[in-house]
């Protein structure tokens, strides 16, 4: 009998998808942070 | 005085060669005083190595056939040479002309890194004359990663030589040759970037078959991807580090107006390094989750892993970002040094330290292995300095007649190296 379950965040790779989404959002902010000049030069 | 004038005035090629072989600058510098004894000692060790075998000077064994020479010279050195393909891609393919002033020095650095570090591979082969086997088709395996790596090293060295050859032609005053060689630059860059992306990851792929031997915190099916992405920021950090030293040591070679623009270049490189490190960190985090590595982050190995991944990846990434945003060159330089240290630690972890991590008898490099490595690094710096002091590497191509400079001026991107 298959023990696969759709509510297990590890087996559905849910954690990896969450990390990927966080990464994409953070990357946008990170690039924006790099593009804008700092407050004090 | 141009090199061509030198050739003409002194009446012949050999006079020119003699004039170029004469030492330039001071002989007793701190670097010379330290490096000459190291190189002499290293040469002596190499004589013993080639007459009495690897066992006479190294701690290599059947359990540890690959040691410090492979781990540092080849695996780490090639990552440091990643700046050449990154910068040529940025300048010739993406047309980021801002980085054009550092292309020659970076390509030279990459070429020498491959010649010396990949060349050091010959020292580590029990039967070094067999190094030619993959090239001449003597019992090579098409499916072997080493087959790919050996061909790529050879082809990439030739490609970098081709990329650098306009500088040599300019030095010799061979205008026609320079024009022809310059026209090949774009093709060489495309070929070089393709080769680099394959063999940088190929070096990581060498370790795929060593799954039972590498500590699970460092082993992953994605080692090739890690090696490729980390070679980008390793190369960029090396450019910042090497460029900072070059701008001090060879300041008379550089137009004073260009000193200011180097800071802008460093800030641009820092942004590139920060973004590539951010991506690399995400990959490592993904593997951390996927392989449930938190169960292993305890004890000495876990602390060592966290030091590498936080102290030598995340911290320099933040430092690069902060330094680039606030135009703080000092922080960027410190981040570059930390990053280079991180690359050394990462590559040595995979190839030496966390390799055979549970073996009863551990491998430690012998003092001879360390001296030979220092000899290879010193010899590369000597050759780099020799070339920079003679060829137009840091200087502009100002010795060409004005008409020719116009012809080779950018934007025709392949026109000049």
Structural description of this entry:
The complex is a heterodimer of chains A (41) and B (417). With 41 residues, chain A is mainly alpha-helical. Chain A has one domain. Chain A has one helix at residues 14-35. Chain A is rod-shaped, with a radius of gyration of 18 Å. Chain A starts with 13 loop residues before the first helix and ends in a 6-residue tail after the last helix. The model of chain A has no long low-confidence stretch (mean pLDDT 79). Chain B is mostly helical. Chain B has helices spanning 3-9, 13-21, 30-52, 68-80, 82-93, 103-118, 121-124, 133-136, 145-172, 175-183, 185-205, 223-249, 256-290, 299-325, 329-353, 367-390, 402-407. Chain B is globular and about 70 Å long. Residues 401-417 of chain B have low confidence and may be disordered. The A-B interface holds A 10, 13, 15-16, 19-20, 23, 26-27, 30-31, 33-34, 36-41 and B 271, 274-275, 278-279, 282, 285-286, 289-290, 292, 321, 324-327.
CATH superfamily of chain B: Formate dehydrogenase/DMSO reductase domain
Outline type of chain A = rod-shaped
Q: Greatest contact pair?
A: A-B, 19 and 16 residues
SS-based class of chain B: mainly alpha
Shape estimate of chain B: globular
Number of strands of chain A: 0
Note the beta-strand portion of chain A.
under 5%
The average pLDDT score of chain A comes to: 79
Distance, first to last CA of chain A = 65 Å
Q: How many strand elements of chain B?
A: 0
Number of discrete domains of chain B = 1
Output the keywords.
heterodimer; A: 41 residues; mainly alpha; rod-shaped; B: 417 residues; Formate dehydrogenase/DMSO reductase fold; 17 helices; 70% helix
